[in-house]
Each structure stands twice: as structure tokens, then as C-alpha cells.
Amino acid sequence: MEPRSRSFYVLAGFFTLFLLFLYGPTVTIAILSFQGPQGGLTFPMNGVSLHWFYDLFQEQAVGDIWGSFRRSFALGLMVMVTTVVVSVMGGLAFRTRFPGSTLLFYLIITALVIPSILVSLGVGLLFSQSGLEVHWATSGFGAQLTWTLPFGLLIMFAVFNRFDRSYEEAARDLGATPWQVLRHVVIPIIGPSLIGVALFGFTLSYDEFARTLLTAGSYNTLPLEIFGMTTNVTTPVLYALGTLTTLFSFVMIGGFLLLFWLSGRKKARLGSDAGKGEV
Fold this sequence. Notes:
With 279 residues, this protein is mainly alpha-helical. It has 11 helices and no strands. α1 packs across α11 and α5 packs across α6. The protein starts with 5 loop residues before the first helix and ends with a helix.
């Protein structure tokens, strides 16, 4: 085995520092969440226990943790489904050039560079001035879509840009209707990408703060609730909440990766069966 070059160790050290910078705060919060009953918000730790995790599930004097979690989860699912459906429809529409398609594309991209707080302010004002209720399920939902849809559409544009249309032509030659072509040919092929768009949509919505700040109305989502609690809660219960939230995020990512793996296996099995049929 050839010896490693000096540049390898330099880059490995830089990458290690990057990982520490990226995950160090999360690990620190996780450690401090296991403080004893008399523990504080900083080191050194005062005992080790699960006290603050138990306390998290008790009624809190400040905040509505579990109500805000349910709202964030429901909003994330709403944004995820809408992002997937609209992204697929947009990707299919942009396969053919139409008048104004270039302008529409740049308008979609513009939503990514406008400061999030301005989007939140604009959507909130639009609803309030129109006499509509500012609510997390309406104005908050719309504001978050301005963040998730551009990502979903860009992914679908890339997917359909390299999509082989011969599969669709073969299905149509065999008598398939447009809906059957979409359901049995297009969707299975782009399935892994749809899982990626769904993951993007849910995670971007679940932890979005700025675009929800002025559009959530009277009921906070989880990021807003945590922000509000930082000015009132002075115990490690906030760290326990952060630890559980991080674990929940990893569970969701793991679930999507499992779906991605199962989708890949199913696609490979269908390809193998098709190959055997040809033989």
C-alpha cells in the first residue's frame, strides 16, 4: 500500500474540523440534556439523569411544545405533498417549450434569493389586507411553499432533462392511455427523485422559521415555539426538546432513505423480470 500524501492528511484534518463545527453544537446540546435535576444550561454537568426528558412530557408553565409539534408535523406533511405534486406537474409542463416559459422559470428561481423575512412580511400583509385570517395552515402554508417549490421544481427539471422518452413511446405503442403511461411508466422511473423531493419539502418546512414568523398567526409552529421559550425557559428541558427533535429528524430521514432503498430494489427487480421475459 502506497503511503498517504501530506495533502490527504491536511484535507482529512480540515474535514474533521468541519464535522466538529457542523455537529458540535448538536452533540453539546445532547450531552447537556442528560443533566441531573439540579443541572443548569452550561458545563460542568451536575449529575446524569433522564429527569429533563421526563419533565418535557409534563405540563409546561411556559409554551405549548406538543401542540406546536403537531402543527409543524401537519404543516410539513401538507407542504411535502403539495411540493411533490406541483413539482411533478411543473416538470412535465416544462418538457415542452411554451410562451413565457423562460420568464416563469426565472420567477421561480427568484423566490430563492428574496430574503425570507420579506416573503413572510409580504404574505402576512397580503392575507391581513385581504381580510383573510393569518394562520399557519393558510398563510404559513403559502409562505413555506415559496421556499420548497423552487427546490422541488429544480430537481424535477434535472430529472426530466435526462428522462428517456422511448419508455413512454413504447407504452403508448402498446395501447396505454396518458394516465397509464404516467402511473405505470413515468412515476416508477422517477420514484427515487420523488422521495428526495418529499424529503426536501418536509424537512425545509419542519424547521422553517423566517417565512413562518409573520404568517403563523396566533399559533406557533415548533421553531417559533422554541425561539419563544429561549427567553423564558432556563432549564435543560429545552435541551431535551432539542435532542428529541434531532432524533425525530434522523428518524424521518431514515424513513425516506428506506423508501429510496425499497424503490431501488423494486425497480431492479422489475428490470430483471423484464430481461428474463425478453429472453
